[in-house]
Amino acid sequence: MGTTGGNTDDLIESLRLTETCRIEPAVMITHVGGLDSAAETILNLPHIPGGKKLVYNHITMPMTALSDFAILGESDTRYQNLHEIVSANRGLWCAEAEEYLLSHWN
Fold first, then answer.
1. Which of 9, 17, 39, 79 supports an S-S bond with 22, CB 3.0-4.6 Å?
2. pLDDT per position as a tens digit, 9-62
3. What are the extents of the domains in the chain?
């Protein structure tokens, strides 16, 4: 759970709402990438559409929109597999996608 723009009370409330299935934080994640993509993403944030950009600090991967996985999958099977996982999860980032990402990117 992120804390962007919120305080501790906001974090506690969001955790309670998530726990009771009243909100689904995964709908906010639109991009994933590695630490190598963080600086450029931050500098260009106003020009990158979508919601939250999730950075994995121990992998190397360009910041990539979930919606781009299918097209990137035409030349890299890892993206095709991520596309299939995310598509099976209503187009949302999920634990299965994260597990796949962490086991297939360095």
1. 17
2. 878 887 888 788 787 778 899 999 999 999 999 999 999 999 999 999 999 999
3. 24-104
